[in-house]
Each structure stands twice: as C-alpha cells, then as structure tokens.
Amino acid sequence: MLLVETASGRIVDANPAASAYYGYAREQMIGMPVRQIDAASYEDNTILERTLEAGQNYFNGRHRLASGEERDVEVYSSPVDLDGVSLQFSIVYDITRRKQAQQELRASEAFYRTVFQTSLDAISISRLQDGMYVDVSKSFLDLMGYEREEVIGRTSLELNIWASFDDRRKLADRLRQNADCHNMEVKFRKKSGETFSGLFSASLVELDDASYFLSVLRNISEAKEAEGRIRDLAFYDPLTHLPNRHLLMDRLGQTPSGRNRKRKRALLFVDIDDFRTLNEAIGRETGDILLQEVARRLIECVRESDTVARLSGDEFGIMLEYLSDIAEQAAAQAQVVAEKIKASVGRPFSLAGREFHKTASIGISIFSAYPENANDVLQQAEIAMNLAKTAGRNTKRFFAPALQANVNARAVLEQDIRQAIKERQFVLYYQPQVEDSRLIGVEALLRWNHPERGILPPSEFIPFAEETGLILPLGIWALDAACTQIAAWESQKEMANVSVAANISARQFRQPIFIDQVLSALHRTGANPANLKLELTESMLVENFEDVIAKMTVLKSHGLTFSMDDFGTGYSSLAYLKRLPLDQLKIDRAFIRDVLVDVVSGAIAQTVISLSKAMGLSVIAEGVETVEQRDFLVGLGCHAFQGYLFSRPLPVQDISSWVSKFNLAAR
Q1: Of the candidates 266, 272, 125, 267, the residue with the CA atom closest to the CA atom of residue 203
Q2: CA dihedral 45, 47, 49, 54 (to 10 degrees)
Q3: How far is CA 488 from CA 478, 495, 525, 526, 531, in A?
C-alpha cells in the first residue's frame, strides 16, 4: 500500500491497494490529513514528523480504517523533492496478525516457563547429543538436592543420578526405538546418596534446530510405601506379621508348576489349648506376646518354602509344600512336622516374669497339589483339629472322608433350620407339672414339625442350634410363643393361673438385650409376668456370674420367677446357689431314673429336696415315669412332679382335654 504525503501531513495520492485497505475512495483520500488515519496514540504527530525526528525511515504504529477498526502497521517512508515541493512516499504493511502471533508466543513462553518452574513434578531438559542438562525446574533441584549451578552443563552420569545403570540402559533403548517413554518406574539417587522410586517419562523435542529430551520425574516413594502398607494390612496379620487367612487361602489355591504338580501338600490347623482362659488370667497384652512367641516357634518348625499363617485368635494354619506324591508317605511327613510343633509349643513360655505351659491340638488334611476348593481343605483340617480337642487335646488327628459326610449333613441341617424358622415350622408342646393332684404348670418344649420327617424332638436340632448360634432366633420365637399362650389361657378358668416354664439357653441369656427381649414379649402379647417361669441351666453360672444375678434380679422385679433346671448335674455350688434369686430347683431325670436302684441317686434327690426346703425354694422332680418313683419321692418330701407317669408333652390343642381328664381322675 502506497501513500504520498505533503510536509504538512496531507495525503496527495494513494494507490488502489491503499484505498481498498483503508476503506476510502481515492478521491476521498486526496487532501485528507494523515492524522485521520493515524490511531489516537499518534494523532498529534504526522508520519513525516515522527520519521524525521527519529532519524529513521520506518516505524511501527496503528492506523484507523474508515470503519473505525484499528490495525497494527509497519511504515517505510522516503522523502523526495519534486519541482521544489517536499513530499513523503510511505509504503504501509499490515502487521496485525504478526504482532498477535508474537504476543501469543510471548504469553505461551511465559505460561510454559511458569509451568516449568512451578510444577510439582521434577522437569529437566537435556541435550540429545551428549545428555547434558540445559535447564531444570525448581522441583527437580528440590527433589535431587542440588543447586542449579551444580546441574546445568553436566550430565546425569556425571551427577551419578541413576541408582541402577541397568535402568538407564533400558531407558536409552526405549528412547532410541520410540523417541519417548511413559511412566517407567526406576530408582534414582539424590545428591545425599539416598535412593528413591520414581516414575519417569521423556519425549524428544526440537528447540532452536537442535534435539533435546524433555523429562518428567515424579517421586512415588510415599505411594510405594503406602501400597506396601495396604498390602500388609490386606494379607498379613498385624500382631504376628504372619500371612493372614486371606493370603493362606490364596496360596492354597495356587497350582505348583512342573514336576511339583504331582506332589501332595498338607494343611495343619493348629489351635493353642485353653488360650482363652490363660488370656483372661494374664491379660490381653501378655497374651499377645505369647501369640507372637508361638508364631516364631511355628516358623522354626517348617521349611522356607512352607507357609505359616495366623487364621484368627489362637488359631494358626501351616501349609506344607512338596511332600511325597504318595498319600501315606505325605501323611508321615506331615506327622513329623506336627510332632515338632507339639514339642515346640510344649516348651515353657517365660512371660512377665512367670513361666507358663501350653499345648496344641493339631488337625491335618492331606490334599493334592491342585485342590478343587481351598475352603474345603481348610474346613477338613479344622474338623480334624476339633477331633484332636475332643480326644483330650495336646494331640493330632488326620481328616477322614467320613468326617466330610458329617460336615455336609450339618450344612444341610443348618440350611433346613434357617428355612424352618422362616416358614414357622417350629411349635411348642406342653408337658404338665402336677402337685397334690392338681395342675400347677406346664413346661414349654420346642418341637420341629418337619415337612418330610414329621415332629422332631429337641435332641435332633437343639445341640446343633446351640453350636451355630441359631438358638438365638429360635429362643426368641419360643419365648414369644410361650407368652402368647399365657395370654390366651388367661381367659380359661382352668388355665388362668397355670405357670408356663420356658427353657432359656446360656447363649440366649448372655445376650446384652435379653432383658429387653423378655419384657418386649410380655408387653407385646399382654401375658401376665407372674405366669412366666424361666428355666436356667447350671452352665450359665460358669461365665460372668454377677451378670446372671443382675439380669435375674431385674426380671424378678417385673414379676417373673426362675427355676434351676438339671440341678446337680453340672457346676453345683452352694456359694453360687445361695446368691441366686431362684424360686425353684428341679431334680434332674438322670437321678430320678435310678432313684430306686442306686443309693447315690437317692441320696442326691434327698439332698436337693432338703436344700430346697432350707432355702425356702419349691422343688419339682422331672422324668417321673412310675408310681414307685413318685411314691419314693413323696417319702423324701417332694410333692411336685413332671413326667410320663402323668403325661407326655402335648400339642396345645390337646391340653384342655388332658386337664379335664386329670381333674376328673383327681376327684
């Protein structure tokens, strides 16, 4: 674009390009003051004046178009003299885009410089030719412990930054092949000599016609340590630092490779006998020290290839690898280890200045190198351990296939009981209790109305329910059903004052919410508390005797009564008995059965009767089946009875007819 101007700053000519650019017709531009196209920042000076004052023939400025838009321009001016007239020839170039690009470049450079210096990752630029550092970020210097002048101009080899030259070789190979690498985990060395784990990425870049590597390094040492801690929590026992159950199960399920695939393996389930009792006596902290010592001794009994794990509490699992491929020989090898464990655990433990002696019960399961189910192997070893405990403890037992059949049957039984609770298959039968030819109460006895096997007695399911904890929902149902029946009988003259004795299991009684459960059942059903008698067993007195007294006292304050069932068969103690707020003692059927033929049984029955009278308690004999037994007990001073002589346990619908017949016979 060409403009011709006078010394006074008026345009005398403009070429077509200038006319089109500025948006004026040529005729409009001729005579126009230059200041009209000058931007505001230059409107006080003409192009010529600025050029002459600066002593140069070009300048950068801004011109205003006819539309009002301002554009960046570069102007080259040359003075000429035509016939004594001084003119200025100006060539104008639009440089708006170029200036924008320059500004963007400067902004970009500032941005990337800011990122380079403030990034938390360590960034460095090194020359491809020789690996020399030409620039590093502050994070790089902070991480590596160097000053800037110690790094610039030197190579990583000179600084000895690589903890392993093998890592540097691998990186060089990857860079030669791909010109970049991403998230390569390597070890680096700081100036202090400390090594750390880093995540390293690098890319080839071209700067000033030369090749450089832009590298980014992130310190992942803390993340690696955290990962290790998480792994320890997930797979290792925090007390003994042994593998936990999860890791043991994982290793049980792994299949050995090569020739070891044919070899047998063994799992030893080790339980420290009576540890709970000792733990309560010496305190949990000292008990933990004992477990740590047991763990150390167990490790000493096995090879490095074997696994010692803590399963829970005082239970340990030991997996023996690479035994004989013949089952009998593998069992013999496992037995040798079991004997070593028994001997090792049997050595005295010195704890808190005292010496303690412990034993171990061990269950052993021999299995193939690739078991179908690791859970089955663990279960088999545990079953064998339980057999060892039953056999007297401090011994070992091997799992036998017949035991598995029993386990399977128990699993089916558990599922059936759960289903029976859900479908309300359980019912209460009631066995009358009589005194002096009158009905004084009934005992509520649980029965299972099995859809296929009919009515099942308690012996078929109560022991198993106790073991599995299913006795808790069963006990709640039975208590609720007994209270419901008490409320229903209150409208019947013959049954209104009859007490209902409900059996309470030790596990149920120990529940913290037991009192609330009883009171809730009474409130919900509207039953008279005076007609509810709770039958306890002596086994409840073994643990937390004070809690037993406290719960009984609270419930008695609400009108309930208590009977001690099976008295004389377990942990009878007069010291305990005199503190219990009981109302009744029950002479167990075991003594009644032999009372006529066994002097000891008769003497025990006499003792219970005399004790009851001395303590102001009522007494009742259960299991009375013959007139002779009844008469003998009457002679001893017992007048309340329960047993087949009077009635079998009856379904509720048969109670009324039995009462009518009994009352008729008593007249």
Answers
A1: 125
A2: 110
A3: 15, 9, 9, 9, 12
- Candidates 181, 184, 134; CA nearest to 155 is 134
Question: What are all long-range contacts of 470-473, with beta carbons under 8 Å and residues at least 24 apart?
Answer: 470/414, 470/417, 470/418, 470/421, 471/505, 471/507, 471/508, 472/507, 472/508, 472/511, 473/421
CB 443 within 8 A of CB 433: yes
Q: Given 3-state DSSP classes, what are the helix, strand and coil percentages for the chain, each rounded to the nearest 5?
A: 45, 30, 25
- Window from 72-81, 135-144, 562-571 with minimum mean pLDDT: 562-571
Amino acid at 205: V
- In 3D, which of 293, 402, 265, 300 has the Cα closest to residue 352? 293
- pLDDT band for 282, please (50, 70, 90 cuts): confident
What are the pLDDT digits (tens) for 410-457?
778 888 999 999 999 999 999 999 998 899 999 999 999 999 999 999
Q: Is the pLDDT of residue 232 over 80?
A: no
**What whole-number distance in Å separates Cα of residue 444 and Cα of residue 431?**
7
Beta bridge partners of 431: 443
| 3-class DSSP state of 5 | strand
**Phi then psi for 38, rounded to 5 degrees?**
-75, 140
User: Tokens 């929902």, residue?
Assistant: 473
Could you give all domains of the chain from N- to C-terminal order, each with its CATH number? 2-100 (3.30.450.20), 119-223 (3.30.450.20), 236-399 (3.30.70.270), 417-586+651-666 (3.20.20.450)
Which of helix, strand or coil describes residue 183? strand
Backbone phi and psi for residue 89, each to the nearest 5 degrees, phi listed first: -95, 120
